[in-house]
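yo

u said u wanted the structure for the complex thing, so here. seqs first:
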Amino acid sequence: MIPAETGARVDNFEHFFANRDSKRAKVSDLNVIRFPDKEHPYLMLYKIEMFAWKKTQRVLFVQKDTSGFNISVNMAKFEVVQSVVDRITDEEMKNVIEKLNDPSFFDF
Amino acid sequence: MTFILCSVVADEFGDSRELSEWVSKLDKTLKIQVFYALESIKKNPSSKSNYSAAYQALKAADSSLTVSLEKNVRDRWEKKGFNVFKFDGSADPGTARLVQGWATKFVTGVEPSVSEVAPASLIFLILRLLIPNLLQSFAFRSVAILPCFERTFFRKW
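structre next:
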């Protein structure tokens, strides 16, 4: 509705001469978690959001409409603390590998 | 009328053989990184459906994981005039192409690139599918909402 609607209506006497209206809504929210590989040795979180908006400005019978989209990308990169890696024993590492090879470990 | 486009963009690890292959290619540091990340995320069930919750969960694990980059980039596309979006229910192919091109260029230009993400092709598929339908939806005076971490919903009333 937002970019298609044209809406600086006459709601009262004052608005007969001029009015303005604006609307904004989130239209997409895409979130991605990316696990590391050899080439990209870090964990990434992404959030890609899109908003649609519309502004209308009217003076008497002349109306100006502007519509559009805003896009925003949030990201965060995480890396493991090296001292934690150094502290892991062989036994604990075995347990880590076992869990990572279990597909149910990725069900969260 | 309701039209739903649903696409899974997370948890795409393929079968257990592919998972094992991926794990075998990780060195010790990366294995531990994935392990602690999953442990942290699993502590908060809403992490799966919410960026902020996932971010908070990972940040809370500061004894094992550290944030090395945080970034927010944004852009805006606008068009003046009355007929940006058609009223007859059809999407203006020219506008759809422009918005699609703008969104794709912006997303691919972000560094570190989102295209490094495993399901990047899926993101662009969604953009390709979504934007013309999104424009169409405005013509129908509807609202499209994609509220979910792993799924993309497109609604049209």
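The radius of gyration of chain B is 19 Å. The first strand of chain B starts at residue 65 and ends at 80.
cya
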